Amino acid sequence: MTHAIIHSLRSLAAAGFASLIALSPTLAQEAGETNPAPNAHLPAYIAPPGPVPGFETPNNWTMVLDNGLEVTFIPWGMTPTIDIRVEVRAGNIDEGRNTWLSDLTVEVMSQGAGGRTDDEIAETFGAMGGSLMSSVRTDRATFMSFVLSEYGPEALALLAETVREPDFPEERFEAARSTIIQLAEGWRQQPGLIATAALNLYQHPEDHPFYTTIPSRAQLDSYTLADVRRFHREHFGAGRTHIYITGQFDAEAMEAAVREHFSDWERGPADEGIDAIPQVNNVVHLIDRPGAPQSTVFLSYPVPPITSKSAPALEVMDTAMGGMIVGRMIETGNSYAPQTFLNWTRGGASWSYTDDIDTEATVSALQDVLTIIDYSTFRPLQAEGIADWMIARYIMSIGSRLSLVSQIALRNEFDLPEDYLDTYASQIRRVDGHAVMNLSREFLARDRMTLVIVGDMDRIEEGIRALPQLQNVRFVREGENE
User: Which residues lie below 8 Å from residue 104, measured CB to CB, with a gap of 6+?
Assistant: First the structure.
């Protein structure tokens, strides 16, 4: 949801790839570090059982209404159901300093629309074998419904009411605000989200919407129904909307329904969303959590955007690095949620590692991770085996409607070439190990890192400050003068 790090679908399975990458047991010595971790290696490379097939995007087509609204039809699957996903290019990036105003807006929109109460809307969707779901991401609001195919046009009509004609019932405004306040309070208690909030302070300038991740209670209390109505009026419109219709459906009936319920919607404001390019830092931010049994670690580096020529090599780098790091963390048994991922943003991107690590093992685990990153800057990888694994995983992952639509939406979101998905396999196969090594050397340099650690500083701070890889990094202890 709000300001959450968005993981690449092709990056989440790094643990499964850990056994495919060879990492020398002399890694730490070659990286020039002292006190190498014992057995810091993974099993030797295992060749795939056979050639990995290519991929061709399932049949899909897009139409554009005169008001700018886009609709993509994707016949897919065997079950008589239909998914309808309405994406509006309106999210946290449009809030300015009014953090989570978009979240409050969508929550109030869900309280009633088209003269129906929220209970009536829920009952109507339930009678069609489905439900209505809404969410807000960093740069868009999404409304989704999953119903039986025969009810596709009716479900689309209800979605149109929700998106176009929210009632914004005054009597339900405080209930919606209370929901958002509770969510914010929950975020403030979670170490991972605390770390994310600290990271954003460094990755974005103070006047950027993403600088503040979690709104204060006073800020949420200050928002009015007029603010919510204004946000909807200024950021919702046909020109910012893309509808995805997936499953088994009557294409003519669904097209007619789209035209009936959306063609008279005003184009609305142009998409003037600003970029969100992570900034380069050289800092370790420490947040004390006395008595914490685990340390939450968030390490991030800015990298080129998904539209760059480096994007395929970045994906290979992420999979390879994730395999090595996750494999090492599994081997030691001291961490609970190791993962690496690429976060594609408007105009930029970042590569990150996150984890929850036993407090007593925090220093040694962090040294392992930094040593692996150093290692990747002077040793080329066996990219061919990595590519085969990535392609096979990619083809399997988009066997579900959700993943397929997410990949097509990703292509559209970043204005990638029409054949982006079809050429994914060939792009990945063309990446060689030296290209990955050069990317690591350029973009994962120590003076580009932002590292946030939430944990019991009495037990880990001294060891962290003593790590050889962090000797030239600026340290900040939250709550103290720098």
Answer: 176, 177, 180, 220, 223, 228
Structural element, H or E, at residue 122 = helix 118-127
CATH code of the domain covering residue 311: 3.30.830.10
In the chain, the number of structural domains is: 2
Q: Are residues 394 and 280 in the same domain?
A: yes
Pair 293, 351 in one domain: yes
pLDDT for 476? 97
* Section 375-395 average pLDDT: 85
In terms of residue numbers, what domain contains 214?
A: 68-262
Check whether 296 has a pLDDT greater than 90. yes
Residues 340 and 280 in one domain: yes
The two tokens of residue 404 are: 């397929």
Does 285 map to a domain? yes
Most confident region among 21-35, 213-227, 382-396 by mean pLDDT: 213-227
Residue that is written with structure tokens 């999404």 in the block? 142
* Stated pTM of the model: 0.87
pLDDT tens readout for residues 308-344? 999 999 999 999 999 999 999 999 998 999 999 999 9
Q: Are residues 86 and 33 in the same domain?
A: no
**303 falls within a domain:** yes
Task: Give residue 461's Cα distance to chain centre.
Answer: 30
Query: CA-CA distance, 149 to 61, in Å (whole number)?
Result: 19
Q: Residue 316 and residue 320: Cα distance in Å, rounded? A: 6
Distance between terminal CA atoms of the chain?
A: 32
Burial readout 369-379 (b: 16 or more C-beta within 10 A, e: otherwise): bbbbbbbbbeb
pLDDT digits 0-9 by tens, 393-445: 888 888 788 889 999 999 999 999 999 999 999 999 999 999 999 999 999 99
Q: Rounded CA gap, 282 and 427, in Å?
A: 32
Among 86, 236, 84, smallest CA distance to 155 is for 84
Asked if residue 369 is part of any domain, the answer here is yes
Query: In 267-317, which ranges are E strands?
Result: 283-288, 294-303
Q: Are residues 164 and 257 in the same domain?
A: yes
CA pseudo-torsion sign 291, 295, 296, 298: positive
Tell me: do 80 and 213 sit in the same domain: yes
Give the tens place of pLDDT for each residue, 68-80.
999 999 999 889 9
Tokens of 462: 């001294």
Structure tokens at 316: 């290979």
* Same domain assignment for residues 226 and 349: no
- Shared domain for 33 and 85, answered yes or no, is no
